[in-house]
Design brief:
Layout: E1 17-20, H1 31-40, H2 44-52, H3 58-66, H4 73-81, H5 89-98, E2 103-110, H6 111-121, E3 127-135, E4 138-142, H7 158-168, E5 174-178, H8 181-190, E6 193-196, H9 198-206, E7 212-213, H10 217-232
Parallel strand pairs: 1-2, 1-5, 2-3, 5-6, 6-7
Antiparallel strand pairs: 3-4
Helix pairs in contact: 2-3, 5-10, 7-8, 8-9
Length: 234
């Protein structure tokens, strides 16, 4: 449950809650896109064209591209060992812990990968993601938190996860951090504070939606620190 991100913190007293994308945001690499390019690159362009034309939802795209993907665990483990956290990822988690701010990764990637990446990164984080199990070295995937009422069409709708938190703790401002137009936009449009880069920033510019630009999560920590200081002294 989303409420589990609160741990022993009294969420009603929390100054804010932070929700962060994973691929290309919390991690330097886009894990899903890189794996798709490397192991299903022959099918990816045609499927991406169908996604761009609206013939596929993002989750349908994932199903056609990745369900049944033959990728031995040893190869995936070797790839994941090379994935790097953003230079400010550990700082962001530590900042949230220090200020008793609920923190959660919202990912349209897969739990199997995130569980292993926590070990490789050397620190833990709460997350919501899609589900991946192995069957004879082939991927079997299913959506984690789909929302048929949201136009995002993803397996894990970030807006719905943030809404679930907001319903339980309506007075706590929510922060969304992301970089992608496809899976991050619905969450960004819902949040009280938004940090954006790459195609998410472009999508928000197109809609005249305000956000804080960032290069690394260190920039986010600096801004959150100033925001919190101003709020506490208001």
């Amino acid at each position: 449950m989303i409420a589990s991100m609160v741990c022993d913190t009294d969420a009603k007293a929390a100054p804010l809650a932070v929700f962060c994308d994973f691929d290309g945001t919390f991690a330097v690499q886009d894990v899903g896109a890189t794996l798709a390019q490397r192991y299903a690159g022959d099918r990816r362009p045609a499927l991406w064209d169908r996604l761009s034309r609206g013939e596929l939802t993002p989750w349908d795209y994932n199903l056609e591209l990745l369900n049944g993907l033959e990728l031995p665990k040893v190869e995936l483990e070797a790839f994941l060992r090379d994935v790097e956290p953003d230079p400010g990822a550990r700082d962001l988690v530590a900042w949230c812990e220090r200020h008793r701010v609920p923190f959660r990764i919202l990912s349209d990637g897969f739990d199997w990968n995130l569980d292993r990446l926590q070990g490789f990164f050397g620190f833990d984080f709460e997350y919501d993601a899609n589900h991946l199990v192995y069957k004879r070295d082939r991927w079997c995937i299913r959506p984690g938190h789909p929302n048929p009422l949201c136009s995002c069409g993803t397996g894990t709708c970030k807006r719905s996860r943030m809404e679930a938190y907001r319903c339980e703790y309506p007075t706590v401002p929510v922060v969304h951090i992301g970089n992608g137009r496809v899976s991050d936009l619905c969450g960004a449009l819902f949040a009280d504070l938004v940090f954006a880069k790459d195609s998410l920033a472009t999508a928000l510019d197109e809609r005249n939606v305000s956000y804080y630009p960032f290069r690394t999560l260190k920039d986010v920590v600096d801004k959150l620190d100033r925001w919190l200081a101003a709020r506490l002294h208001a």
